[in-house]
Amino acid sequence: EAGVTQFPSHSVIEKGQTVTLRCDPISGHDNLYWYRRVMGKEIKFLLHFVKESKQDESGMPNNRFLAERTGGTYSTLKVQPAELEDSGVYFCASSHTSGVRWVNEQFFGPGTRLTVL
Amino acid sequence: GNSVTQMEGPVTLSEEAFLTINCTYTATGYPSLFWYVQYPGEGLQLLLKATKADDKGSNKGFEATYRKETTSFHLEKGSVQVSDSAVYFCALTFNTGNQFYFGTGTSLTVIP
């Protein structure tokens, strides 16, 4: 079974440019999450999709970030225009949908390292 | 609010040394607790978990016990190997489909 994949692995852009990150979850996983780790700090939640719907986007830092999951398969996270503080590692994770009495493991991708100059 | 605090790194140990990485949490409800590990160039992998008080999670020689009275989930291993060099993240979540709250990560380097 293929794991969560992310593209690109690294991206270096200049302030003001646009970058689009892609995440392909494990096949059949309805839940898809985006997280971000800024240098040396904790990994922070950005948003959660259930299929194609945004379940929780409380962690999105501002309206320069746009996430989509058309068709409920892969997801994209676009940053436009990028700012210096957007630099960090962006992780994607996916999990099964299940009942409420037990907790699903989230399977993480390798991350995309974004550097904004 | 909900948060996880891990001991600051980096940690450097000699092979076969004993490892402890401290983790404490604050939570608005009754969380499940996790340790994830990130090896160089790879994504985060689940190392172990515990879903209720006094549960012990274990995997690959690592252990952690859910201590509700001290709100802690310290990671331990009796004898580390070079291959254990990685970044370790403590995390909590509440129920199915909910977000994870992570600590800052602790970088471990094991030298031969």
Describe the protein:
The complex is a heterodimer of chains A (117) and B (112). Chain A is mainly beta. Chain A is 0% helix and 48% strand. Chain A is built from no helices and eleven strands. Chain A has strands at residues 5-7, 10-13, 19-24, 31-37, 43-50, 53-56, 65-68, 75-79, 88-95, 107-108, 112-116. In chain A, strands 2, 4, 5, 6, 9, 10 and 11 form a seven-stranded mixed beta sheet that branches. In chain A, strands 1-3-8-7 form a four-stranded antiparallel beta sheet, with no helix packed on it. The model of chain A has no long low-confidence stretch (mean pLDDT 91). In chain B, strands 2, 5, 6, 10, 11 and 12 form a six-stranded mixed beta sheet that branches. A four-stranded antiparallel beta sheet of chain B has the order 3-9-8-7, with no helix packed on it. Chain B has a two-stranded antiparallel sheet with strand order 1-4. The mean pLDDT of chain B is 93. The termini of chain B are far apart. In chain B, strand 5 and strand 6 form a beta hairpin. Chain B has strands spanning 3-6, 11-14, 19-21, 23-26, 32-38, 44-50, 56-59, 62-65, 75-77, 86-93, 101-102, 106-111. Chain B has no helices and twelve strands. Classes of the chains: A mainly beta (117), B mainly beta (112). At the A-B interface, strand 4, strand 5, strand 9 and strand 10 of A face strand 6, strand 10 and strand 11 of B.
Brief digest:
By secondary structure, chain A is an all-beta fold. Chain A has no helices and eleven strands. Chains A and B meet through strand 4, strand 5, strand 9 and strand 10 of A and strand 6, strand 10 and strand 11 of B.
Features:
heterodimer; A: 117 residues; mainly beta; 7-stranded mixed beta sheet; 4-stranded antiparallel beta sheet; B: 112 residues; 6-stranded mixed beta sheet; 12 strands; 0% helix; 50% strand; globular
